[in-house]
Amino acid sequence: MLDEEIIKKLRIIQARKIKESTQSVSFSQVINDCIAESLK
Questions:
Q1: Is 13 within 8 Å of 21 (Cβ atoms)?
Q2: Residue ranges in the chain assigned as alpha helix (H)
């Protein structure tokens, strides 16, 4: 379960990625990208 504040931040990231891309960006993709980036 994700905290509401984390969800809001992830939705902001998702909106930014959608603006920068011509493709759709799923919420789960944003979560996976953020987790992968933090594990590097």
A1: no
A2: 4-20, 27-38
pTM: 0.86
Tokens of 22: 């011509």
The dihedral built from the CA positions of residue 3, 10, 29 and 25, taken in this order, carries a sign that is positive
pLDDT for the residue 26: 97
Taking Cα atoms as reference points, which of 34, 26, 29, 32 lies closest to residue 9? 34
Lookup result for tokens 């996976």: 32
Q: What percent of the chain has pLDDT over 70?
A: 100
Res 20: pLDDT: 95
